[in-house]
């Protein structure tokens, strides 16, 4: 049985995951405006991952017999000053999401809600990867600097990223 408090937190997280997809779509648009389609692709794929995360929450809430609530959200940030600014912002956002996952996990532990504890483990691991990937790209972009031809090599590398839904079972 899901408590009202835990159900609210799970529904809020569904919202944050959808909102993340929106953030990354805006970042993709900024990269496209710089004629860096590989960087744009990286964020488009990131957005697909976020929608996948959101649907995991949607299905989990349903499977537990809870009522899904869909929330709206504020406009994402659309103006960035540089690639470094984009990745700094993406990393900060992932750190926020990590804190959110840990907060829900703390509540699930407090309530001894074992299905939620087990469900969230996947997200705990996923957040380690998400933060690492944003942090590594931030370092690369900082090291290269915006006008370095190496940015175009990195752009080609990022153009290869594709979305493959991870096996859930
Ligand atoms: Fe779903 Fe990037 O956290």
UniProtKB/TrEMBL annotation:
GO cellular component, one term: cytosol
Reactions it catalyzes: 4 Fe(2+) + O2 + 6 H2O = 4 iron(III) oxide-hydroxide + 12 H(+)
Pfam family, one: Ferritin
Gene3D superfamilies with a match to the protein in the record: 1.20.1260.10
SUPFAM superfamilies (alphabetical): Ferritin-like
InterPro entries in the cross-refs: Ferritin, Ferritin-like, Ferritin-like_diiron, Ferritin-like_SF, Ferritin_DPS_dom, Ferritin_prok
Entry keyword annotation includes Iron: yes
Subcellular location: Cytoplasm
UniProt keyword annotations, A-Z: Cytoplasm, Iron, Iron storage, Metal-binding, Oxidoreductase
Positions bound to Fe cation: 17, 50, 53, 94, 127
Single GO BP term: iron ion transport
Residues covered by the Ferritin-like diiron domain: 1-145
CDD domains, per database record: Nonheme_Ferritin
Family: Belongs to the ferritin family. Prokaryotic subfamily.
Protein name: Ferritin
Protein source organism: Anaerobranca californiensis DSM 14826
Organism lineage string: Bacteria, Bacillati, Bacillota, Clostridia, Eubacteriales
